[in-house]
Design goal:
With 316 residues, the chain is of the alpha+beta class. It has 14 helices and eight strands. The chain binds zinc ion (ZN).
Length: 316
């Protein structure tokens, strides 16, 4: 079997198709088909490895399963069959280790650092990286929590809720009491932009953001040095600029959002400055009068820049 470090290097070089590249290099047979009751499994017989992935699950989940099963092979897990019903929720040593390796294959540290350049790491940055890496935002949040310190955070945790109950908490070292997590979720839901901020008892700043997902409720909690914590997050700035720009006009907001989503495919191939210029060339003439003035104002332009940034390619 391939060495773990070698596999991680291959994954890094082939981002965002790390696990696929590792599977091809190992020569493992990967088959995607409908399975009942599990996300996937891996079998090893006479040095031939086969991985089966449940094709009925969302594609980001299937990629995680592939990475997780590859991790078992690389880690030399003893058992021959792994059925993994849960996602990132296991507390068993071997499963947890496989989740960690999977996360590293899907999201190399360098790629996370390239996008999460300044703390706090907000929900938009998490979504941007999730799109780029073709993984779920929850998975990105877990990886960011694991890389907290290199990203300039004091600590971080991801709390996954099942209704009002806490399904699991992912963090290297941050302990989050369940009651505290529930309170933070409530505050974050009520806060502008889904992000809530408060000072901690030891004088640091706690930032809690709701990470949307159609299948689960997740809260990303970061602990920041006071100096950074006082700065507004990108999401908060975006909400404030949006309030100013649209002045409560749902139709103007709808028009701008419509143009932005039509422009998404173009933005993906451009750097932010080019994307903003092209967007202005194509759409800005549509708005006249007060709406036109606001969208051309530096604050309107800043709003567009922040929205487009989520899609544009990062500058190398
Ligand atoms: Zn497993």
């Amino acid at each position: 079997m391939m060495d773990l470090l070698e596999a991680l290097v291959i994954a890094k070089e082939n981002f965002p198709k790390g696990p696929e590249a590792v599977a091809a290099r190992i020569g493992v047979e990967v088959c995607s088909k409908p399975l009942t009751g599990c996300a996937g499994w891996c079998i090893q017989n006479n040095n031939i490895a086969r991985i089966s992935i449940n094709s009925t699950m969302p594609s980001v989940r299937q990629r995680f399963t592939l990475a997780h099963e590859l991790a078992h092979l690389l880690l030399g897990s003893k058992s021959e069959v792994q059925s993994d019903a849960d996602f990132f929720g296991s507390n068993e040593g071997e499963e947890k280790a496989a989740d960690r390796v999977a996360a590293e294959m899907l999201l190399p540290k360098k790629e996370v650092q390239r996008i999460a350049t300044a703390p706090p790491v907000d929900a938009a940055t998490i979504r941007k990286l999730a799109n780029k890496a073709n993984v779920s935002p929850v998975m990105v949040a877990c990886r960011v929590a694991e890389l907290a310190q290199p990203l300039g955070l004091i600590n971080a945790a991801v709390v996954n809720f099942n209704g009002d109950k806490i399904a699991w908490i992912w963090s290297k070292t941050l302990t989050v009491p369940h009651e505290k997590a529930r309170t933070l979720l409530r505050h974050a839901r009520e806060a502008t932009g889904g992000t809530f901020q408060e000072p901690s008892r030891s004088g640091e700043t706690i930032v809690a953001s709701v990470i949307d997902s159609p299948i689960q409720t997740c809260l990303f909690i970061q602990v920041l040095p006071v100096s950074i914590g006082n700065a507004k997050s990108r999401d908060q700035i975006l909400v404030e600029l949006g309030k100013w720009l649209f002045e409560g006009s749902a139709s103007f907001r709808g028009q701008v959002n419509g143009c932005l989503s039509n422009f998404k495919a173009t933005a993906k191939n451009e750097d932010i400055n080019t994307a903003l210029r092209l967007f202005n060339e194509k759409y800005i003439g549509r708005w006249t009068g007060a709406n036109g003035d606001r969208v051309r104002d530096p604050r309107g332009q800043k709003f567009l820049r922040l929205r487009l940034e989520e899609w544009t390619r990062s500058v190398e």
